[in-house]
Amino acid sequence: MQIALFGIEVYDKSLKVYQQIVDKLEREHCRIWMNEDFHQKMHGRLQFKNEVKLFSSYKDIKGKIDVFFSIGGDGTILESVTYVRDSGIPILGINMGRLGFLSSVSRDEIIGAIDEVLKNNYILNKRTLLKLTASEELFGDLNFALNELTVHKKDNLSMIVVHVYINDQFLNSYWSDGLIVSTPTGSTGYSLSVGGPIVAPGSENFIISPIATHNLTVRPFVIPDNSVIKLKVSGRSQSFMVGLDSRFETIDSSIELQVSKCDFSINLIQMSNRSFYDTIREKLKWGVDVRN
Predict the structure, then answer these.
(1) Which residues contact 47 (CB under 8 A, 6 or more apart)?
(2) How far apart are CA 10 and CA 96, in angstroms?
(3) Which of 78, 88, 102, 135 is such that its CA lies 20 to 30 A from the CA of 265?
(4) H or E element in which residue 223 lies
(5) For residues 210 and 174, is the Cβ–Cβ distance under 8 A?
(6) pLDDT for the residue 176
(7) What amino acid positions are annotated as catalytic residues?
(8) Is 283 helix (H, G, I), strand (E, B) or coil?
(9) DSSP letters along 228-244, please?
(10) How many helices (H) and strands (E) does the chain have?
């Protein structure tokens, strides 16, 4: 089996865990691929018995990789999506961080999870992405997001106004620090931190959530993901920030943004003994009370 190991940061306290992953895969006669930056950071710190194939782009792995291991946190999975794109390669999220809604396999579950992956004993959890179209080209061919699109003020002096239209029907003008358009996957991310609802994967919705809104009667709004959302931004400042997951560009008020459902989805590997609801209870500590 061809396995890609993808990481961004190397944590010294996790070197033993990285070595366990490599040793396990080599014992199972898997061919290991690694992204170049991660491999370079690991130089002299990991031992390999066999040659490792390197990749640096989406084109390097499309049609060649069976499973993509994202080793880090949720941010690492968001970066993984830019390599996997529409290839359909399943992503296994191995959590080296703290919370990890997407990278749900913990350190002590890794070896068991690899066994299940090699036996094809897992569930493919399809996750919707959103796509950005703008009146001026932004983000090149990375104009999609697994979690969210954000529009945010660039300075701290004043609010911005985001005018929102859904299927060409006016919804509202949000006076705020910014606005988030989130997928169900992103509902446990930035959207959650500003009071948005948790939405189960597969719900076929987008969530529109203002950031620090001036009008206290405005609340997050859930719409079908077959909707087309248009955003027009204005304010005292001449420039604003627009983000797709962890990638950002600067725009001005002349640029109109259009958000719609992406024409491909991402396959996240879910262990057969774990569900989205298990993850929510565990990560958010629902039901945990020191008095009990």
Answers:
(1) 19, 22
(2) 10
(3) 135
(4) strand 221-224
(5) yes
(6) 95
(7) 74
(8) helix
(9) -EEEEEEESSS-EEEEE
(10) 7, 17
Q: Which residues contact 252 (CB under 8 A, 6 or more apart)?
A: 238, 239, 240
Q: What is the pLDDT of residues 168-218, one digit of tens each?
A: 999 999 999 999 999 999 999 999 999 999 999 999 999 999 999 998 899
Q: What is the pTM of this model?
A: 0.93
Task: State residue 159 phi and psi, 5-degree precision.
Answer: -75, 170
CA distance 32 to 50: 8
**Is 84 buried (19+), middle (13-18) or exposed (0-12) by CB count in 10 A?**
buried
| Domain 129-262 bears CATH identifier 2.60.120.260 | no
Domain boundaries, the chain: 2-120, 129-262
Q: Which pairs from 64-68 meet CB under 8 Å and 24+ separation? A: 64/2, 64/33, 65/2, 65/3, 65/4, 65/33, 65/89, 66/1, 66/2, 66/3, 66/90, 67/1, 67/2, 67/3, 67/4, 67/91, 67/92, 67/117, 67/269, 68/3, 68/4, 68/6, 68/92
Q: Spell out the residues 6+ positions from residue 93 whose beta carbon is closer than 8 angstroms to its own.
A: 70, 74, 76, 77, 100, 102, 103, 104, 105, 268, 269
Rg (C-alpha) for the chain, rounded Å, is 20
Taking CA atoms, 226 is separated from 19, 96, 130, 166, in Å, by 44, 35, 10, 10
Q: How far is CA 70 from the centre of its chain?
A: 11
Distance CA 256, CA 165 (A): 11
CB-CB contact of 146 with 275 (8 Å): no
Task: Report which DSSP code applies to 51.
Answer: P
CATH superfamily, domain at 2-120: Probable inorganic polyphosphate/atp-NAD kinase; domain 1 (3.40.50.10330)
- Strands 122-134, 247-251: pairing is unpaired
Q: How many CB atoms lie within 10 A of CB 287?
A: 7
**179 forms bridges with which residues in the sheet?**
151, 210
Please tell me the distance from the alpha carbon of residue 20 to that of residue 111, in angstroms, as a whole number: 8
